[in-house]
Design brief:
The protein is rod-shaped and about 90 Å long. It has one domain. The protein is mainly α. Helix 1 packs antiparallel against helix 2. The chain has 2 helices and no strands.
């Protein structure tokens, strides 16, 4: 499991645990709602960060893959040219 995926599951689990704990805690409804709203905003921010990291890593991997494909194509063309020269004379 990737680091960003693990972070996402950790944040989701922590949020769920906090929510359940608050629902069963002896606090007023207003305090509980305020706290849940605050936690939801924090979780949303963290999820946005994790998503941005995943997108950045995906772009990096895509760019690297494209570079490797271009290098492989160039090597193939050079090999084909070399083979033609060898067999032509």
């Amino acid at each position: 499991m990737s680091k960003s995926n693990s972070s996402l599951w950790f944040v989701a689990g922590a949020s769920l645990g906090a929510t359940l704990a608050l629902l069963f805690a002896p606090q007023s409804g207003e305090k509980t709602r305020r706290y849940l709203g605050k936690q939801a905003r924090r979780t949303g921010s963290r999820l946005a960060e994790v998503s941005e990291d995943a997108i950045d890593k995906s772009r990096d991997l895509f760019d690297r893959g494209r570079e490797l494909a271009d290098e492989a194509a160039e090597m193939m063309e050079e090999g084909i040219d070399r083979a033609r020269r060898t067999f032509q004379g």
